[in-house]
């Protein structure tokens, strides 16, 4: 179980400074100003915390949010409790964020690493899994567009969840250690900037409350601890309340 994409109107580029991590110590940091985040040691599947490495807390939080959403979608479909507005709004949000995240990896992570490793098998695996997930995403979208029976939607969402879970596990165990070992801070920041630019301000207003929806206190503290105070203020005062009022995926009462 979990620890803890194409929205209209998300093309407005946000100022990089608004979402850039703070450079000094903050509430989400420990020694040296670095988050003690969940990082994966090669071949172990464990998430330890060398503070001198690139912090990948956001990657884990995003993976958890993807998987949380699919848990909810499957539970809603199995219970026959899938209201139309929430189904469409939730799917547009989910598929947008998957698309933005995977595209940034394909353009700003894997190509950089490919030039620095002797064996590119892991990177080829990541790209192949992205391609396979595109097909599974298309299957769920087709079911939603066709107003397919709930059992069909549940089955396709379960297939997507299985594929996405396996991909996240592989990425955390095999690819993120390469990121932490071989990428520079500037290159890692470029990966984040690509996603910020794709989402823009309106996308960020949905992304942060979506990311932290149902998250554990530690995850929320870490994520909010590495963004500037204006983002924390917007999140608490405006973005989260608006997100919680809008149609979204939630576990049915019977689950």
TrEMBL record:
The lineage of its organism: Bacteria, Bacillati, Actinomycetota, Actinomycetes, Streptosporangiales. It holds the Pfam family Hemerythrin. Residues 37-47 have a biased composition (Polar residues). InterPro entries: Hemerythrin-like. Residues 16-51 are annotated as: Disordered. Residues 56-179 form the Hemerythrin-like domain. This is Hemerythrin domain-containing protein.
């Amino acid at each position: 179980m979990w620890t803890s994409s194409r929205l209209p109107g998300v093309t407005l580029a946000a100022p990089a400074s608004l979402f850039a991590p703070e450079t000094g110590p903050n509430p989400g940091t420990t020694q040296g100003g670095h988050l003690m985040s969940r990082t994966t040691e090669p071949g172990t599947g464990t998430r330890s915390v060398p503070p001198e490495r690139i912090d990948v807390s956001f990657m884990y939080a995003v993976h958890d949010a993807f998987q949380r959403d699919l848990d909810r979608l499957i539970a809603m479909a199995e219970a026959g409790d899938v209201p139309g507005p929430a189904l469409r709004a939730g799917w547009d949000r989910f598929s947008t964020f998957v698309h933005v995240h995977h595209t940034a990896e394909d353009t700003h992570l894997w190509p950089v690493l490919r030039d620095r490793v002797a064996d590119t098998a892991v990177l080829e695996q990541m790209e192949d899994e992205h391609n396979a997930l595109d097909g599974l995403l298309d299957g769920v979208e087709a079911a939603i567009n066709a107003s397919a029976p709930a059992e069909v939607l549940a089955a396709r969402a379960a297939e997507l969840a299985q594929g996405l879970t396996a991909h996240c596990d592989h990425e955390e165990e095999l690819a993120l250690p390469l990121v932490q070992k071989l990428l520079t801070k500037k290159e890692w920041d470029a990966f984040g900037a690509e996603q910020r630019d794709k989402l823009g301000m309106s996308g960020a207003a949905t992304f942060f409350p979506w990311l932290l929806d149902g998250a554990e206190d530690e995850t929320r503290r870490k994520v909010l601890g590495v963004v500037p105070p204006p983002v924390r203020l917007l999140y608490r005062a405006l973005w989260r309340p608006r997100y919680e009022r809008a149609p979204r995926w939630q576990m049915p009462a019977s689950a």
